[in-house]
Amino acid sequence: MLVQVRSTDEVDRPFFCGSSVNPSASPDHLICTLFVVARFVLNAEAIAIVARVVTSWLPDLPAWIPTLLRRLTDGALLPFQTLIPIIGGLDFSPIVAILVLQAIVHYVPVCPTA
Q1: How far apart are CA 93 and CA 95, in angstroms?
Q2: Within a domain: residue 19?
Protein backbone atom coordinates (compact mmCIF):
# COMPACT_ATOMS: atom_id res chain seq x y z
CA MET A 1 0.00 0.00 0.00
CA LEU A 2 1.40 3.32 -1.05
CA VAL A 3 0.83 6.08 1.50
CA GLN A 4 1.55 9.64 0.53
CA VAL A 5 2.37 11.80 3.51
CA ARG A 6 2.81 15.55 3.20
CA SER A 7 4.32 17.62 5.92
CA THR A 8 1.84 19.21 8.29
CA ASP A 9 3.48 22.58 7.62
CA GLU A 10 2.38 22.35 4.02
CA VAL A 11 -1.36 21.87 4.61
CA ASP A 12 -1.62 22.38 8.36
CA ARG A 13 -3.00 18.85 8.88
CA PRO A 14 -2.00 15.29 7.96
CA PHE A 15 -2.70 14.07 4.44
CA PHE A 16 -3.01 10.32 3.79
CA CYS A 17 -3.87 8.43 0.57
CA GLY A 18 -5.40 11.40 -1.21
CA SER A 19 -7.87 12.32 1.53
CA SER A 20 -7.44 14.77 4.33
CA VAL A 21 -8.71 14.66 7.88
CA ASN A 22 -12.19 16.14 8.03
CA PRO A 23 -12.01 19.25 10.24
CA SER A 24 -15.80 19.59 10.32
CA ALA A 25 -16.06 16.44 12.46
CA SER A 26 -14.15 18.00 15.34
CA PRO A 27 -15.86 18.24 18.73
CA ASP A 28 -15.67 22.05 18.58
CA HIS A 29 -17.63 22.08 15.33
CA LEU A 30 -20.27 19.78 16.78
CA ILE A 31 -20.65 21.97 19.87
CA CYS A 32 -20.94 25.08 17.70
CA THR A 33 -23.62 23.34 15.64
CA LEU A 34 -25.48 22.50 18.85
CA PHE A 35 -25.36 26.18 19.89
CA VAL A 36 -26.64 27.30 16.48
CA VAL A 37 -29.53 24.84 16.66
CA ALA A 38 -30.36 25.92 20.23
CA ARG A 39 -30.45 29.59 19.22
CA PHE A 40 -32.65 28.75 16.22
CA VAL A 41 -35.13 26.73 18.31
CA LEU A 42 -35.39 29.41 21.01
CA ASN A 43 -35.93 32.18 18.44
CA ALA A 44 -38.47 30.06 16.55
CA GLU A 45 -40.39 29.48 19.79
CA ALA A 46 -40.49 33.23 20.45
CA ILE A 47 -41.78 33.86 16.92
CA ALA A 48 -44.42 31.16 17.38
CA ILE A 49 -45.57 32.85 20.61
CA VAL A 50 -45.93 36.18 18.79
CA ALA A 51 -47.86 34.42 16.01
CA ARG A 52 -50.14 32.82 18.60
CA VAL A 53 -50.90 36.21 20.14
CA VAL A 54 -51.61 37.77 16.74
CA THR A 55 -53.85 34.89 15.65
CA SER A 56 -55.85 35.21 18.86
CA TRP A 57 -57.00 38.62 17.60
CA LEU A 58 -58.07 37.32 14.18
CA PRO A 59 -61.47 35.58 14.26
CA ASP A 60 -61.76 34.18 10.72
CA LEU A 61 -58.74 31.89 10.58
CA PRO A 62 -58.90 28.20 9.73
CA ALA A 63 -59.05 26.17 12.96
CA TRP A 64 -55.79 24.31 12.28
CA ILE A 65 -53.64 27.47 12.53
CA PRO A 66 -54.43 28.37 16.17
CA THR A 67 -54.37 24.66 17.07
CA LEU A 68 -50.90 24.24 15.58
CA LEU A 69 -49.60 27.36 17.29
CA ARG A 70 -51.12 26.28 20.60
CA ARG A 71 -49.40 22.89 20.34
CA LEU A 72 -46.08 24.53 19.49
CA THR A 73 -46.17 27.08 22.30
CA ASP A 74 -48.00 25.45 25.21
CA GLY A 75 -44.78 23.93 26.54
CA ALA A 76 -43.21 27.36 26.93
CA LEU A 77 -46.34 29.30 27.92
CA LEU A 78 -48.10 27.03 30.43
CA PRO A 79 -45.52 27.47 33.23
CA PHE A 80 -45.83 31.25 32.93
CA GLN A 81 -49.63 31.10 32.71
CA THR A 82 -49.76 29.22 36.02
CA LEU A 83 -47.55 31.83 37.72
CA ILE A 84 -48.90 35.07 36.21
CA PRO A 85 -52.60 35.85 36.73
CA ILE A 86 -54.75 37.43 34.04
CA ILE A 87 -54.91 41.14 34.88
CA GLY A 88 -57.82 43.19 33.57
CA GLY A 89 -58.66 40.50 31.03
CA LEU A 90 -55.13 40.58 29.57
CA ASP A 91 -52.70 37.66 29.63
CA PHE A 92 -49.16 38.95 30.12
CA SER A 93 -47.54 35.50 30.16
CA PRO A 94 -46.53 35.61 26.45
CA ILE A 95 -44.54 38.80 27.08
CA VAL A 96 -42.74 37.27 30.05
CA ALA A 97 -42.12 34.01 28.15
CA ILE A 98 -40.59 35.90 25.20
CA LEU A 99 -38.38 37.93 27.56
CA VAL A 100 -37.15 34.75 29.26
CA LEU A 101 -36.53 33.02 25.92
CA GLN A 102 -34.56 36.01 24.64
CA ALA A 103 -32.54 36.13 27.88
CA ILE A 104 -31.63 32.47 27.35
CA VAL A 105 -30.71 33.17 23.71
CA HIS A 106 -28.49 36.01 24.91
CA TYR A 107 -26.45 33.58 27.03
CA VAL A 108 -26.09 30.85 24.38
CA PRO A 109 -22.53 31.24 23.07
CA VAL A 110 -21.95 32.37 19.51
CA CYS A 111 -19.11 30.50 17.83
CA PRO A 112 -16.68 32.46 15.68
CA THR A 113 -16.89 31.72 11.99
CA ALA A 114 -13.46 31.34 10.50
Answers
A1: 5
A2: no
Dist. CA 48–CA 91, nearest whole Å: 16
User: Is 26 a member of any domain?
Assistant: no
Residue 79's domain spans which residues?
42-114
Q: Would you place residue 28 in the very low, low, confident or very high pLDDT band (cuts 50, 70, 90)?
A: confident
- Whole-angstrom Cα distance, residue 14 to residue 41? 37
Evaluate the CA torsion angle 52, 56, 62, 64 in order and state its sign.
positive
Q: Which helix (H) or strand (E) holds 16?
A: strand 15-16
Spell out the residues 6+ positions from residue 53 whose beta carbon is closer than 8 angstroms to its own: 94
pLDDT of residue 90: 93
* Residue 30, in any domain of the structure: no
Instruction: Determine the pLDDT at residue 14.
Output: 46
Residue 105 lies in a domain: yes
